[in-house]
Write a structure and sequence with these properties.
By secondary structure, the chain is mostly helical. The chain folds into 2 domains: 49 residues, Arc Repressor Mutant, subunit A, CATH 1.10.10.60; 136 residues. Helix content is 67%, strand content 0%.
């Protein structure tokens, strides 16, 4: 019977120096994945890049998979937080646009890293008590659809799932093909989402306009 390797940190850092060490390790791992892929991705290489001993690394992470899991967890947490913030916008159209913007930034801010983490997603989600990322994002999309007062012929749950799938399909495929034009991707995602809802997006899907319009509701 095989024993599954742990994929989450060994312990949490609490003191300032410990937090700094963990940050150095995690960022070093991210840079190695971005620059060299999995070929040079070893605990020795990560420790060397971070400027710490392998022993120090093992105080916080039992293996390289647990460091990758931490990168994935942080990326997912940022996406969920940004989607939650966007969903609270007083104008439901700007909420949709804000969530699209969050998805595009999530995928293209560090695109090479995002692609590598996406490949590991199913493995990490199966080990995470919080479950798949969709289960945490869909309620926010449903909330926005309910606020829109639009006719929802297939029901809010099914249509929220469709919007999630449309966004994920476009962002994942674009990153995988090597495209790095975030403005173009943002525009296409918005067009697809509003098209699915059969709504004229007008000038709302203007990425330059969106941040200035982000007057979030409490």
């Amino acid at each position: 019977m095989s024993v599954k390797k742990p994929v989450f940190p060994r312990k949490s850092a609490s003191q300032t120096r410990s937090l700094y060490t963990v940050e150095c390790i995690v960022e070093a791992a991210a840079r190695i994945l971005e620059e060299d892929g999995m070929e040079r991705y070893t605990t020795n290489a990560i420790a060397e890049r971070a400027g710490v001993s392998v022993g120090s690394l093992y105080q916080y992470f039992p293996n390289k998979d647990s460091i990758t899991a931490e990168l994935w967890r942080r990326s997912r947490s940022t996406l969920i937080k940004d989607v939650a913030i966007a969903s609270r916008h007083a104008d439901w159209r700007l909420a949709i646009i804000g969530m699209a913007d969050a998805a595009v930034r999530h995928q293209l801010q560090r695109p090479d890293l995002a692609v590598l983490l996406d490949r590991q997603q199913q493995h990490f989600e199966s080990a995470d008590v919080n479950g798949p990322i969709a289960s945490m994002i869909l309620p926010y999309i449903e909330q926005v659809l309910a606020a829109s007062k639009l006719p929802l012929p297939y029901g809010p749950s099914a249509m929220a799932s469709d919007l999630f799938s449309i966004t994920r399909g476009l962002t994942d495929s674009t990153a995988a093909t090597g495209e790095r034009d975030s403005s173009s991707l943002f525009g296409r995602v918005c067009r697809a989402l509003f098209g699915y809802l059969r709504i004229d997006q007008g000038d709302f899907a203007d990425r330059e306009r969106y941040p200035a319009a982000q007057a979030q509701t409490p």
